[in-house]
Every structure is written in C-alpha cells, then in structure tokens.
Amino acid sequence: MPLDIQAGIKRPKIDMHCHVFKMDNWEKSSDHLVECGEALGITELWCSSIVGGGKIIPPEEICLHNNTILSAMKRHPKRIRGWCFVIPGHYQAALDEIDRCLDAGMIGIKLYNQYWINDPAVFPVIERAVKRKVPILEHAGYPQPKFKAAQPHISHGIHFTEASQRYPEAMLIHAHIAGGGDWEQTVREMRNASPNVYIDVSGSNLDDGMVEFAVQEMGVERILFGTDGTMAGSVGRVLDADLTEEQRERIFWGNAERILAPQGATPTESRF
Amino acid sequence: MLIDINAYIGNLPFRTLRDNTPETLVARLDRSGIQMAAVSSIDALFHRHPYSANEKLFHDLEPHKDRLISIGTINPLSPHWQDDLQDCLKWGMKGIRIFPPYQGFETNGPETKSVANACAQNNIPLFIPNRLEDIRQHHWMDPAKESDLTQIADLISAVPEATIIIPNARAITSSALWKRQDIRNGNWYIDLSLVEIFYRLHTNANTIRDLADLIDDGGANHILFGTNLPLSYAGPALVKHAQLPVDAETLKNISYRTAAKLLNITL
To answer: What is the pTM (predicted TM-score) of this model?
Structure first.
C-alpha cells in the first residue's frame, strides 16, 4: 500500500524520549520542541535534562536539571511530561530526588551512562521504580569502541536482560535503537529479557528495517515511539516500516499509554 | 513528482539489505511515491577496481532506465580510471560517485580533485556521500569514517566548476559548506535523507533548527530530494519533504527540477 505521509504526520503520537536541557532560555527551547512536535502530530513529549559523558555531578546540581523539567511541565502542561534524572550512586539522595520529582508530577526515571543498568548501585533505583510503578528510561546502545570510550558504562541489551531477570516486574526501557550503535546486537541481546523490557525507536540512525527487526525480536507491544532530537526522521521510520496499522498504532500511542497506566496516569489528550 | 538523487542497489558487507535489486527498488519507489532515482552500486565501493561493477550496474538498470538513472563509481587509485569514466559515459551514466573513506584517499586530495575536474569537463555531477551508514555501529572491517564536510568544502573551493552532490549529510548550517562564505553560492547540493529541518538536539537555545535555518538564509537552492534507499528508510525524507518551509516553485526545484537539470534528464 502506498505511503500516506500527510495522514501519517497528522495521526496522534506520544513521544516518550525528548529533552529540555538546563540552559539559558530553556523556555525558548521548550516552546520550539512543542511547536515542532505539534507539526508532526505529537501530543505529548516526555522530557529529561541529563548530564552525559559518565560525569558525576552533586545531587544539588541534579535538582536544578530536574527543576528545569518541572518548569517546562508547568509552561506546557498539556504537552510536556517529565523524566526524573538521577545518578544512582548518590543512593539516598537519588531516591529522595525520585520521590520529589514523581510527587511533583513526573512520570518516570531517567538514567544516563553513569552506571550499567545491571550494576548493584542501580538496584535501589529499580526497586523504587517498582514501588512507584513507573518506568525507567536508560541511555543505551552498542557503539564501536571509539565511541564507547567516551561512555564506558553505557548499557546495552545484555545489561537490560540481566537487570530484568533480577527485577522482572520493573519497566525498563532501552533508549534509542537508532542512537548510534549496533542495533541488531543490542536488540538480540534482549531476546531473553523480561516482557517488561522495552526499546524506543528514537535516534539519528535511519537504517532501513530496524523497527521491523525490533518488532520481530521483542514483539510490537515492547516498542515505544520516541525521537530524541530526530523528530521527522523518527516519525518517518515508523510510517515507512513494514507494519500493520494496528502495530503502528501500538508504537505511536498504545504502548506508551499502557506503561503510564500502573501509576494511574493517562495521556494528556484523548487519542480520538 | 520526486527524483531521488540518493539510491543504491547491491549488497553491503555488514548487514542484509532489502529492496536492493532493480525490481524491488522500483517497487519500493512506487510505495514511496517516487518516480525516478539516481542509483549507484554499493558493491562498486568495496571493489579495488570498480569497472566490472559499473558494467553490471549498467546491464542491471537497463530494463528500468525509465525509472532508475545509473551513477557510476570511480576509484582514482585504480589504473586508467579515466577509461572507466569514459565507459560510464558511453553507457549513459549521468554522474560519478566516489567515497574516499572506503577507497583510501583524502576528500580534498589530488585524487579527488582529478575526478572532480574530469566530471566538470564532461558536465556530470560528482557524488560524494557524507556517509553510507552511521559509523557508530562499526564492523571490524569497516574503517568507520565519514567524508569530511570541511574537506568537501576545500574541494568545492579548489574545483569551483565541478558540481558536487553530498548525500546523507547533516548539521549543514554548522558545517564548512555553509560557514565558508567563498563557497556559499557554489555548485554543491545536499539531500533530505539524514538532515532534520526544524529541530535539532541542542543545549543552546540559539541553535535549535537545521535545514530551516539554511532555507531562511537563502540556501534552499542547495537542497535536493534523496532517501538513501535501501540503506535507510525513505519515510524520513518523505516527511521532511512534506514539511519543507518553501514556496511552490522552490518545492518543485527541490523535488525534481534541479535534479533533472544536474543529471541532464529530459522530463
């Protein structure tokens, strides 16, 4: 069937992988994000402000990053939802920050590349996520050594599989299948993961077939729509993927709706 | 109408491709609403001497020549590459492609300049993809290097009479292609396959867009439609094409007019 790009752009979508970074004039950044999302049919954007490169910063600085997200949520209450970024090695401070942010309306926990997700330092965070019934989105991928050197603790599929075998009830999301790495490797490594392990389709690599491969390996119910800065590209790869309309609907909307449900949350707008 | 200036047939050593034969590529173009495509051989890039791959490309595309426009591959390190170029012209190929990271020379070096000059003399464009694949996924046999946009800018400056098409590039406005004032109005073109238009990941609120800034600054005439099929999905380019912030005449130029002119195609 020929692609109907215009109809595909208009269909409602939940983008569960976005950022509003702590910066001067974050307001402009968040306004632009929302505007670009609306032009692609994205009704809500789940955002975090992270610190990359494996860098460890003090807990009080992390609060400032999360405060940016809380402010963006207030500025765009119908559009922006928040991931609470923490560094698990801060232990109690990280758990306190999770509670603060979730109590203020965020819907999940964001981890970056400070720790592999199966590191024991992360266990208390996963346990808190289970207790609060929220998902964890962790930066992940299987990059070649040259790119891995800058982030030696980036998680890939096997780390998610191991973490999920310890905590099968935890909703763990492998970020960006297209984030720049061997996507076949990292997806195949999750073949034996818990059914509560997901992957999102965000990222700048537009390799043909990657969405179908993830669906084939993991099942469509475990694939989430996200962009992470590649907005038109991510919409286009899902529209072009060889999927049924029901499968596409699950990726664009239904799966995100489902992972919100345990905490009693629903999409900010009705699908229909 | 759409002319895709960035398509291939053949095999990539590092992963299995679909829709990589003339027949299946045409079917994919049909599904994508694309009427014609400029097609190169992936295999030719990995051959030390691509003349046989060019001949195969010619024969493979011949039954589909109303849809698939053949683009030859040259390796300037191969003896008598000038003869290979003449063969490509004899077969009616409408452009030449090189990919220095796989072929082992510098994009702004003497070999590239020789090919660019030869293409200019024969009034055909030179295609230099910025990349075939995302280099972060790397196979051990893959040098995992991109054609450097700064070096391509050097080439454009050194051989201004050549037409250089740079498929699969991104971050155009922050590259030397756009920052160097001396080549802003040069004969270079990028495509829609990889670059985003309205949004780019940013930590500075002053750099929040990509191609939209190029268009606002008067650079729309450098844009062509291209997908990178079958290495990439066509959908991303189609979504961006649907969103281009340009007037109707400029949209026609981007969609097919400029490509037809560069490829010397009568529509």
So the answer is: 0.97
